[in-house]
Design goal:
Blueprint lengths: L1 H20 L2 E8 L10 E4 L5 E3 L5 E6 L2 E8 L6 E7 L4 E3 L2 E2 L19 H18 L3 E17 L1 H7 L23 E18 L3 E11 L38 H7 L6 E2 L9 E2 L10 E11 L2 E10 L7 E8 L5 E8 L7 E14 L2 E15 L2 E16 L11 E5 L8 H7 L6 H17 L2 H12 L5 H4 E6 L4 E6 L1 H4 E2 L7 E11 L5 E11 L4 E13 L4 E13 L6 H5 L4 E16 L2 E13 L8 H7 L11 E13 L3 E5 L2 E5 L5 E9 L9 E14 L5 E16 L6 E4 L19 E4 L3 E9 L9 H6 L2 E11 L4 E16 L2 E8 L1
Parallel strand pairs: 1-7, 1-8, 11-21, 21-32
Antiparallel strand pairs: 1-4, 2-3, 2-5, 5-6, 9-10, 9-20, 10-11, 12-13, 14-15, 15-16, 16-17, 17-18, 18-19, 19-20, 22-23, 23-25, 24-25, 25-26, 26-27, 27-28, 28-29, 29-30, 30-31, 31-34, 32-33, 34-35, 35-36, 36-39, 37-38, 39-40, 40-41, 41-42
Length: about 850
């Protein structure tokens, strides 16, 4: 009875949605003769450019106005199948289709009587007219609707292997595996995230975009992560970096629409999609495209009384960042009317497939702009397939108008005051597309859950669960939360309390944090710990209290008091970092004030007091003597008091951001940076024994060099203009090499000793370039391995000490993925 009731509700939801849209829907599954899903098959309305692509499970969904149609189902290596249908208003037709393998490779291609290469000729005309279409659009304003849905489907591995088929860009037969099990077991379980929004978009040639979000709803944002997880540092990293953490995508598999609209401009030579491909993709109509693509004329037809050519695009190198599929070209104007393209598998970073169908509309002479953009992609994630679908509808274009220059600021996305407050009735009236039944179900569930997650009943229950005392608390930790007061504190469990390799042997640590976030996003945060060393019977600890009281400017005051063992050189090699020669006993008080002065310009002023003591009288554990040897001898010096004022300044050139719900969010990373450090040793302040001045200036950047790879570099120089009373602990330290590891070449020098420091003027520069398949990727076998070249150099000069160091390195590396993060592993020399 319950199942019947749910099905009834779902049908009602779908009918209600259709009442506001007045169109029909055809959906179903495309399989081969053995019943195995045909992944990514195409479904088109005959003699039009209107179509969709099936997902990895062979499922498709296409909406059409009421009327009579012929649907064409096709896939490379299979015969086309045509189905005639008649659709009524608000009808949902379920149409499953079986297609069979193609025996003859000529079945799909029109046979031309002479030797004239029609496909090559048509594409040459498209290239000749490409600049005309780029130059005709100076700017535009439009409205965009976006819907992004993500499914996580658990796979039956054996069935998935049966559905895998060799991708080929030439037409050929495909050897099939015999079906041995029930295809219905292919999908075991699924979940769905869904985001939709309507925005006003401004574009200025060549690369300026602004997105004003009118209404936004993330149906997956049901609640904040709730649990005994430690979150320290607020908006800032818990280290010396004063720059706020850039926005971390809650789901890396979801792409921002305005970025994709900008990126998929096929009239450009290169399409940059760094989250999808390491290298920029070459457009099939780029000036140099004949070097990368072959073209085949497929057919022609009339759409809206205009002749359209269908051309197959075939990449010459299946491992390069190129497209394959079909493009549609209008006769005589030689403009793109639609594309149905996929990206070479071997070029994808984490995707199994990435396909785009884009339709263009003619608005004026030489002006064609996207009207619909549908994207389908699949990502393998363990035993799950992540199935993504993005549907965009663009309308209300205003072209080559007067646009206020102030619109294109570094704030590239804004939100209307009521953008997050629109209810389901608004969406039903204003949503320009139809949703699938499962999406409507998900929305209904999400809206219900959102109300529940903000209810007193739920919040009381969560407080109770968080505060509950149980037998596993010694392992997991214990905390207390009160949602009425907005307070929370937490003590880590035993695994985080054990410090087996502490200074002076085993230490037992008790870490704690207490946070309170106010409704206006003001954040009060603390971090503290106390630990005990059993060998020396000593107690150490530190407590810090911070208040972020103006989130839009990242203004934060943080005060720290402690008696701890501190590192002398935070940038030492691994051996040096953990050896006892790199530690002192510091009794300190530190006050830090951080602020963003103007967009991208960050500053932190610190007042530091420290009573510095050597640890020569400390008993050291036998294991540290064995591991570190000579390096384990503690640094011996006369204890002294150190008072210092320090100013850190960093400027991020062209920093992009948005403000959402009273918080400023930094978008992206790797902007060029300029940084400066000024330190002043304050003599006689709190009986201080130090008197020195230090100034350091530098810059760093990451550059994408078209298809030649990417580079990272950093240049810095420093000087001690005053060193009347300068101790070794205040020297400038440089990171040396490790015995077996190639450390970050922007932070270290591989051929130096374990440690190096100086109190003199210095200049250093570091550079690394990743070729990202630009050379080795052109070799067929190497293309499969995804192994690439890397190289770089480092320079360090200390003139007064007559020290000059130069080193170069080269290596082989390969990117790989762990969950949602891309890493590189390599061998260098």
């Amino acid at each position: 009875m319950k199942l019947f009731f749910l099905k009834f509700i779902f049908v009602i939801l779908f009918i209600i949605n259709n009442l506001f849209v007045f169109s029909a829907v055809v959906s179903g599954e495309i399989t081969d003769s053995e019943g195995v899903p045909v992944s990514y098959a195409s479904v088109y309305v005959k003699n039009t450019t209107l179509g969709v692509a099936a997902n990895v499970a062979g499922k498709y969904f296409i909406e059409l106005p009421a009327g009579k149609y012929t649907l064409v189902y096709s896939y490379v290596g299979f015969k086309k199948v045509e189905k005639q249908i008649i659709l009524n208003k608000n009808q949902h037709l379920i149409l499953d289709v079986s297609i069979t393998e193609n025996i003859s490779e000529f079945d799909e291609i029109d046979i031309v009587a002479d030797k004239f290469d029609r496909g090559k000729y048509i594409m040459s005309q498209v290239r000749e007219n490409r600049k005309k279409y780029i130059g005709s659009i100076q700017n535009y304003k439009c409205e965009i609707y976006t819907k992004t849905s993500i499914k996580k489907e658990f796979l039956d591995i054996e069935s998935e292997e049966k559905s895998e088929r060799k991708k080929s860009d030439t037409i050929k037969s495909i050897k099939r595996k015999k079906k041995n099990d029930n295809v219905n077991e292919y999908l075991k379980k699924e979940r769905l995230n869904l985001i939709e929004y309507i925005a006003e978009v401004y574009y200025q040639n060549p690369n300026k975009y602004k997105e004003n979000i009118i209404v936004f709803h993330d149906y997956s944002e049901k609640k904040k992560h709730y649990g005994k997880s430690v979150s320290i540092g607020g908006n800032f990293r818990d280290d010396d970096d004063i720059i706020p953490i850039p926005e971390q995508d809650e789901n890396i598999y979801i792409y921002k629409t305005v970025d994709l609209v900008n990126s998929f401009n096929f009239y450009k030579n290169l399409l940059k999609l760094p989250k999808i491909c390491t290298q920029p993709l070459i457009s099939p109509i780029a000036a140099s495209s004949p070097l990368s693509y072959k073209y085949e004329y497929i057919e022609s037809f009339f759409e809206n009384n205009k002749k359209i050519y269908k051309i197959r695009v075939i990449p010459r190198n299946k491992h390069d960042a190129l497209f394959y599929g079909n493009i549609f070209v209008q006769d005589s104007t030689w403009s793109l009317t639609a594309v149905d393209l996929s990206i070479n598998k071997q070029a994808l970073l984490m995707h199994k497939n990435f396909s785009i169908i884009e339709n263009f509309k003619n608005y004026d002479i030489n002006i064609y702009l996207p009207e619909k953009i549908n994207i389908i992609y699949t990502i393998k994630d363990g035993k799950k397939n992540i199935l993504g679908e993005i549907r965009n509808k663009l309308s209300k274009y205003e072209i080559n108008i007067q646009i206020d220059k102030k619109i294109f600021s570094n704030e590239i996305r804004t939100y209307a005051d009521d953008a997050f407050d629109k209810d389901s009735l608004f969406w039903k009236k204003n949503r320009p597309v139809q949703l699938k039944t499962e999406e409507l179900i998900f929305i209904e569930k999400s809206d219900s859950l959102a109300k529940y997650y903000t209810s007193k009943e739920y919040l009381d229950k969560q407080d109770s669960l968080f505060n509950k005392i149980s037998w596993w608390l010694p392992l997991s930790g214990y905390g207390h939360k009160n949602h009425y007061k907005g307070t929370e504190w937490y003590i880590d469990g035993i695994p985080n309390q054990i410090v087996p390799f502490g200074v002076g042997g085993y230490r037992h640590r008790l870490p704690l944090y207490i946070n309170k976030e106010f409704k206006n996003s003001i954040l009060l945060e603390t971090k503290e710990f106390i630990d005990y060393g059993f060998l020396n019977k000593d107690v150490k600890g530190k407590i810090g209290v911070g208040l972020t009281y103006y989130p839009k400017k990242f203004i934060r005051t943080f005060i720290t008091v402690g008696n701890t063992y501190e590192r002398i050189n935070n940038y030492a090699s691994l051996e040096q970092t953990f050896s006892r020669s790199n530690f002192v006993n510091s009794k300190s008080v530190e006050i830090k004030q951080r602020i963003e002065i103007i967009n991208g310009l960050y500053a932190e002023l610190s007042l530091i007091y420290a009573n510095q003591n050597p640890i020569t009288d400390l008993k050291l554990s036998s294991w540290s003597e064995f591991v570190f040897g000579e390096l384990n001898r503690p640094s011996d010096f006369e204890k002294y008091i150190h008072s210092e004022i320090r100013l850190d300044v960093k400027y991020i050139i062209g920093q992009k951001y948005t403000i959402r719900k009273n918080k400023k969010i930094i978008l992206g990373k790797n902007y060029p940076q300029i940084f400066a450090i000024y330190r002043k040793g304050l003599p006689d302040i709190f009986e201080s024994n130090t008197n020195f001045d230090y100034l350091e200036l530098g810059t760093k950047a990451e550059l994408k060099l078209a298809r030649f790879g990417s580079s990272r570099w950093e240049v810095a120089g420093g000087i001690f203009p005053n060193k009347k009373n300068l101790r070794v602990l205040e020297y400038k330290f440089f990171r040396g090499s490790d015995r077996f590891f190639f450390s970050d070449p922007l932070m270290s020098f591989q051929l130096l000793g374990l440690t190096l420091n100086s109190n003199s003027q210095f200049v250093k520069a570091n550079y690394i370039h990743h070729f990202e398949g630009n050379i080795l990727g052109k070799i067929p076998f190497m293309g499969y391995t995804k192994i690439s070249l890397a190289g770089g150099a480092g320079i360090l000069s200390i003139p007064k000490e007559n020290f000059n160091h130069f080193e170069m390195f080269a290596g082989l590396e390969r990117p790989f993925r762990i969950k949602k993060q891309i890493f590189r592993i390599g061998l260098y020399g």
